[in-house]
Each structure stands twice: as C-alpha cells, then as structure tokens.
Amino acid sequence: MTIEKRLAELGIVLPVPRAPAFSYVPVAVQGGLAWVSGQLPWEADGGLSKGKLGADASVDQGKRAARLCVINGLSVLKAALGSLERVERIVKVVGFVASAPGFVEQPAVVDGASTLLGEVFGEAGRHARSAIGVAELPRGVPVEVEFVAAVRAG
Length: 154
Known about the structure:
The protein has helices at residues 3-9, 59-81, 106-121; strands at 27-30, 33-39, 87-98, 128-134, 143-151. It is of the alpha+beta class. The protein is globular, with a radius of gyration of 15 Å.
C-alpha cells in the first residue's frame, strides 16, 4: 500500500504547506536524511491549538496537537521530496511540550506524534525520540514537533 493510500485510509488530508514565518527552510535534505523543522499544531481551518500542558490543556489535547504537528510536517516533507514514497524510515522525533510546573507526562503527549508515524509508515515509522518539557512555545502552542527521515534518492 502506498503512503498516499494509507493517509486516505486514516482519513488524513495533508494541508497546503505553510511558508516559514522567519529565516529558515521547512525541510533540509542532506546525506540521505530529511530534517523537518519544528512544526506547530495548525488546524485544517487555519486555527492554531493553544495551551500549556498541566494548566489549561489535557494530555489528550496535547496528543492531538502532536498529531497535528506531524500532519503539518508530512505536508512540508512531501513538498520537499515530491513524494512520501521516498521515505525509507523515520529516524528521530523530538517533541517540545509547553509544560506547567510539575507536569511530567511529556512522553505521553509526544506519543501522539509517534503513534501517527507508526500508523502511516508501519515498522518504518518506529523511531528514536526525545520528549522535552519547556516553559513556553511559539504562539502559545502546547506542542512543537520536529523529525528526521531517511530518504531514497529522488
């Protein structure tokens, strides 16, 4: 099954890639790796998930935000590669979680990203991962996710 068919089966429509707001590229491809810049949880309607885990966002809301980050990441990755079929495997995921004092469930939140990558890529979606609690994230979002994919030559 192709990645496009798998996304459709999961009910996922990749959004139009968002242009960077600052001086960076959404994806840098070098040496067989594609480095996807940190992605925010943009909604399909252009809205943005907001909140801080342990204060005004639940773990389930954080997981959903992490999932949205991956969907946006797949969108920019597809634009950079031309096709997600070039992805050999997801190598590394880093999730940043805006956390209130005492919140320690960052791994559970970032699992929203990891689970989706497994659903999309199967065994090739299993990856190394870091889940990091931070005081604040851009635009007041609860989660930001970046990832690295091994890619075939195009």
